[in-house]
Amino acid sequence: MTVDSTTILAKAKAYREATAEALSRLIQVPAYSGTEGKRIELLRMLCGEAGFEEVRIDGLGSLLARIGSGKKILAIDAHIDTVEVGDRSQWSADPFSGLIRGGIVYGRGSSDQTGGAASMITAGRILREIGYAGDYTIWFTFTVMEEDCDGLPWKYLIEKEKLVPDFAVSTEPTSLRLYRGHRGRMEIECTFQGVSAHGSAPERGMSAAYKASRAALAVERLNAALAADDDGFLGKGTVIVSKMEAHGPSQCAVPDQAMLYLDRRLTWGETLEMAVEQVRQAIGPDLAEVRVPRYAKPSWKGTVYEQELYFPTWKIQADHQLVRGGVEAHRALFGADPIVDKWTFSTNCVAIAGRHGIPCIGFGPGDESQAHAPNEITRVDDLEKASAFYAALPYALAGVHP
Ligand SMILES: [Zn+2]
User: Fold this and answer.
1) Which tens digit of pLDDT belongs to each residue from 323-362?
2) pLDDT of residue 402
3) Shortest CA distance to 119 belongs to which of 57, 73, 77?
4) Which of 331, 340, 336 is nearest to 399 (CA)?
5) How far is the CA of 399 from the centre of ligand 1 (A)?
6) Is 58 a catalytic residue?
7) How buried is residue 313: exposed, middle or buried, by Cβ count under 10 Å (0-12/13-18/19+)?
8) What is the CA(108)–ligand 1 centre distance, in A?
9) Residues 151, 350: contact at Cβ < 8 Å?
10) Which residues of the chain carry a pLDDT beneath 50?
11) One of 36, 58, 77, 81 is an active-site residue; which one?
12) Phi–psi pair at 99, nearest 5 degrees
């Protein structure tokens, strides 16, 4: 099966304004993690209008929209929650205006990553209109809670809803480049115990603050000693102390409790067990306890789906069928190879590829640098091209050998 690039490009162009308008409408309905209900309802309406063959909401509250009924499953994902706006005075216009002007859509989430969602709706419309009946069942997933706990909605889809795709695409911003991996991450909490004594006689006590301080410096040394990854694609892992606390019965006493919070970025080959053991070794007997905290906030539907704050590293090889399929779709549409690279930040692929080993690629409108920044924008040109890419991908994939 070949890509009918002429038809797909013509349709993406014809729906260009509609795609931008859909993004604008979505931006006007704020959706922070755990409160996405109203935006999900709007998406359900937009997907209904676009002609998806099946539209449903899963147990967590993500929206799933299907095209095709082939034997293999291709998932195309956008998280539809956003972070908050931060200091409003740094925005030159209302972050929820969804203003469209001069080929730009303005507002919170325009790049990260509601633009991907808008392009996906148009891709579904295009595939429906050209009567896609190929090898793939294509699930367009509009997922919740990613900004709070990346991967959680997809851990839920795979483990609870039993939606196990053969391939997945994340539509997080890549500036229309093709991405094939990113570092993982985890959070680690270390606690320290001392013995309290009157501040006038410290020799009677044992300070938990001093233990935590020695430990913090040990973490700094651990960071410098972390090994690089084998091929240098993802870069070295890192660890930092992100928070430090010490307290005791009063400010005139030797503190008997202390805590260090660590942010650990994981490169290829680094796992949760390995990272925890490194911390144990680095800190030594001063350490009372080390643990990986858990996330347990309810979704907008009230579902609590708990997981530890561990987001595994993932990558796929440059010659993987899915990467070649993405390159082929790009070539057929735009007459050139895409730049193949990786994200700096983390995405839902930590669950799809990192936990479950399902191959992922990334291709999305907008820029990673816009994510979480004031005056966030995306380009209407990107939205149009991304919608064409998602429509072309299932055809291109069928044409490349496994
Ligand atoms: Zn994002």
Assistant:
1) 999 999 999 999 999 999 999 999 999 999 999 999 999 9
2) 87
3) 77
4) 331
5) 30
6) no
7) buried
8) 11
9) yes
10) none
11) 81
12) -55, 130
Question: 288: which 2 tokens?
Answer: 């009372």
What's the CA-to-centroid distance between 284 and ligand 1, angstroms?
A: 37
Among residues 36, 58, 112, 146, the one annotated as catalytic is: 146
pLDDT above 70 as % of the chain: 100
What sections of 150-231 are H helices per DSSP? 152-159, 208-225
Angle of helix 37-50 relative to helix 115-129, nearest 10 degrees, comes to 20
Residue 146 designated active-site: yes
What DSSP element (H or E) covers 43? Answer: helix 37-50
Q: CA gyration radius for the chain?
A: 23
* The residue to which tokens 């735009």 are assigned: 334
Question: Buried b vs exposed e over 151-171: b needs ≥16 C-beta within 10 Å?
Answer: bbbbbbbbeebebebbbbbbb
Cβ contacts of residue 351 below 8 Å, gap of 6+? 150, 151, 152, 153, 154, 155, 158, 311
Q: If you measure from the C-alpha of residue 353 to the centroid of ligand 1, how many angstroms do you get, rounded to a whole number?
A: 16
At 302 the three-state DSSP class reads: coil
The chain-wide mean pLDDT, for the chain, equals 97
Rounded to the nearest whole angstrom, what is the distance from the C-alpha of residue 210 to the centroid of ligand 1?
39
pTM value surpassing 0.70 = yes
Q: What amino acid occupies position 99? A: L
Q: Is the distance from CB of 33 to CB of 397 less than 8 angstroms? A: no
Distance between CA atoms of residues 358 and 314, nearest Å: 10
Instruction: Give 112 Cα–ligand 1 centroid separation in angstroms.
Output: 4
C-alpha 318 – ligand 1 centre gap (Å): 23
Q: Residue type for 79, please?
A: H
The predicted pLDDT at position 1 comes to 61
**DSSP tag of 355:** I
Cα angle value 323/324/326 (rounded, 5°): 65
Task: Assign 185 to helix, strand or coil.
Answer: strand
Q: Read off the tokens for 47.
A: 């997907």
